Amino acid sequence: MIMSPRLIVPIVSLICGLARSATAEIIISNERNLNNLVSVLLEVPSISKSSGPLTFARLSDGWIFVSTTCKGTGTVRVLLDQETWADSLLVHDGDAGKEAMRYVTKGAHTIQVECQDETIVEKLTVKAIPELIHCGLGFNPEIKSYGRYDMEFLKADILPNVTTMIVPNNIKLSESVVENWHRQGKRFVAEVGINSQAKTAEDHFKYWTGFYDRTPYLDGIIINEFIVNRPVAEWAALTPERLARMDREREQYGQYGEALKKMRTDDRYRNKTLFAYVGGSGKKLNQEIIGTNFIRTIIDCGYRVALERYLHEMSSEQGSKGALQTFLDGIADWEAKEPGVKKQMVLAFGLFSMPPGSINKQPNVDYHVWMDQQMNLAANHPALSDIAGFEWWTSVLADEETVRFVGKLYRHYAIEGRKEMLTKDPLYLTHIQYADFEKGTEGWTLHPAEAESIAAKSFPRYGRIEGRYMGLGRPADPEHIGDTFLWMKRSEKGPNTFSQTIKHLEPGRLYSMKMFSCDYQDLVNPKAKKLEEASKFIGTVVLEGVDVDAKRSFTEVYSSSPEPPIPVWITYHWKVFRAAGRTAKLTVSDWRSAKEPGDTFGQEQTFNFLEIQPYRQ
Questions:
Q1: Is 522 in contact with 605 (CB distance < 8 Å)?
Q2: pTM listed for this prediction
Q3: Average pLDDT over all residues of the chain
Q4: What are phi and psi of 392, to 5 degrees?
Q5: Cα 462 versus chain centre, distance
Q6: CA angle 416, 138, 133 (to 5 degrees)
Q7: Is the CB of residue 576 less than 8 Å from the CB of residue 613?
Q8: Residues in CB range of 300: below 8 A, 6 or more apart
Q9: Which of 101, 280, 324, 371 has its CA 20 to 30 A from that of 8?
Q10: Alpha-carbon distance 401 to 360, whole Å?
């Protein structure tokens, strides 16, 4: 997406007043890179009357961002290329500023400004930006207490900052929603799968194009998913069964490629876009399974590789730096093996930040700073220049704050073209120590109701059961797997409590608190239960010295997935609070209150992942 200023120098003719004036001022506009992602194609400081065509050029097909600021009470219309007044890119009616996004073809384009009355356009800017994808509308959170991620929720932070919306392939949208989105020049892309019953390229072609036939408003599809695994040399064993499977998969990828070619050449779908999710355990481009032609076919068709790069939190600075370097090395390997692939690559980062599947796995790491570091690399590192677009997968597994944060990242790096970090906080949190009880009870103050009613314990793969995701069949994190927790057994003699001073708060700032708890016997001796039969959390979580936002705070029970075979019901605790001072106190009790114990004495409960980090509105 980098646009080199030495490749093209547009000559912009600004003809002020049209019929009112025959004089013409020539403005020479050098394309100017703000970062890897954004280039200024045209910048006009002032337009006091209607203009003639203002010319700019884009070096490839892609998105532009047009913004204007105006002064006055009259009407201003901004027209792109051959648009009519009715289809104006921007219309000012006494508004101070307006923005628009459009997908344009490679080459020269014109913008014309029509001013009425005494209104002045103080500044007009056209930028080349990457494709900015939200995943998505209709993908509501698994933790239901966060509410629905509908158009009303998305309008503040997401809708102004994205070009493309991913939707489920069966979603029903109102005509007004579809028309309004398309009027802005933006796109709907449906997530679809691979038909496991298809036997030929024609079968795959009919399956994928069927989504367009059934849902005409779709502008494209994103196929979930194609897999790139580790090279065969790294496999533990190369059995006849595996060799046979490899042959079948190579044949399938040949069929997929033929289907994509057929879609591209069919006039009915020529203007549709297609994204191919590519995931798997390989960090580099291994062509042993997908063949040497599949990725090239995607490129030659003008489609997009949506490369899944889900970077989970690491528990140390060294681990974090290593994960980012591995990510960079992988992109460089793709570009080396398939030159030009970055120009048609969408980086699909990991948004999933909450149960039952989360890469927000370390309670000592600020997940939003981690997201910020990834986008900062994309905006600045030479290995990530020319990337065509971005996506964060998926809002189904993301809390509302994190969903909204993506829009802030897009605005900062991919629209404003900033190079510096959006966040100013450190990556590693210091508000709570040993939040997973990974060092037993160190750092915590315990008040047991009776002897041996509180203890630090562990359970194999408990972090994975909670939803700390790395992949099916793998531990949550080789560095720190989250299998440790505090165990408390409820007593009629009094409450068990554990507490710790929360440190390094900024007075007046908002923070969030997260915690997991579950019934210990459900964990070690699981039995199939419905939600209404699940053993609920009994106790209280008290934050002293802060102002808790009751409307944003909740507890909700969720079912572990995909393991163990019999799911465990786990309680997700979420609180938002405003700090009053530099410190506060967190106390967890297994009584409902000091005077009301609740029932089921003898119940055993587990507690871990006590994370406190800044809450970003």
A1: no
A2: 0.93
A3: 91
A4: -120, 115
A5: 26
A6: 25
A7: no
A8: none
A9: 101
A10: 13
Q: Is 122 exposed, middle or buried (0-12, 13-18, 19+ CB in 10 A)?
A: middle
What is the rounded CA–CA span in Å between residue 556 and residue 545? 24
Span 258-314, pLDDT tens digits: 999 999 999 999 999 999 999 987 789 998 888 889 999 999 999 999 999 999 999
The CA distance from 231 to 242, in Å, is: 13
Structural domains in the chain, CATH included, are 11-129 (2.60.120), 131-353+383-397 (3.20.20.80), 445-614 (2.60.120)
Q: Is 8 helix (H, G, I), strand (E, B) or coil?
A: coil
Q: What's the pLDDT tens digit per position in 152-163?
A: 999 999 999 999
Calculate what percentage of the chain has a pLDDT beyond 90: 78
470 and 518 in contact (C-beta within 8 Å)? no
> In the numeric block, which tokens belong to residue 225?
């998913």
The Cα 213–Cα 268 span in angstroms is 9
Query: Are the beta carbons of 226 and 278 closer than 8 angstroms?
Result: yes
Q: Which pLDDT does position 472 carry in this prediction?
A: 47
pLDDT tens figures, 129-141? 999 999 999 999 9
Answer for the pair 190, 277: CB distance below 8 angstroms, yes or no. Answer: no
Are the CB atoms for 177 and 171 separated by under 8 Å? no
